[in-house]
Amino acid sequence: MKTELVQYGALPYVVVDNEPLICLVTTRETKRWIIPKGWSKVGMPDSTVASREAFEEAGVLGTISEKVLGSYEYRKKLHAFAYAKCRVSVFALHVDRQLLDWPERRQRQIAWLVPHDAANRVSERGLANLIAAFAYEEV
Q: Any keyword Ribonucleoprotein (predicted)?
């Protein structure tokens, strides 16, 4: 029996001149572009987990949606020879501010991109589709 791992992610965005910009971060090891995401924490709502990861990984603060925007799957590397399927439930995060310093600032790069460019930068097809379809008016 295979178990699916579950993570919670934030899709941080701002609106500039009526156009959303999406914040992406790099992974620490492979430097691939992703959204901030992490594992559930006992007693913490899933949306709060996503918001906390966005703060830790990108230094962004704002209003997180209580409603799941969508989800995607990817292969999570567990160690040198083992992978597992992981599902990420994503919450939209309307960013109010970005800090000058945050916990993982020296471990990751960040980029603010229009949805089309952000979708092209990530490697997970499901995440790319979710970003490309993002309609901030509905959040």
A: no
Of residues 44, 24, 20, the one with CA closest to residue 36: 24
CB 95 within 8 A of CB 2: no
Q: How far apart are CA 130 and CA 114, in angstroms?
A: 13
**Which residues are CB-neighbours of 86 under 8 A, at least 6 positions away?**
4, 5, 6, 7, 73, 74, 75, 76
> CB within 8 A of 79, min separation 6: which ones?
none
- Band of pLDDT at residue 83, cut at 50, 70 and 90: confident
Alpha-carbon span 26 to 76, nearest angstrom:
15
pTM of the predicted protein model: 0.92
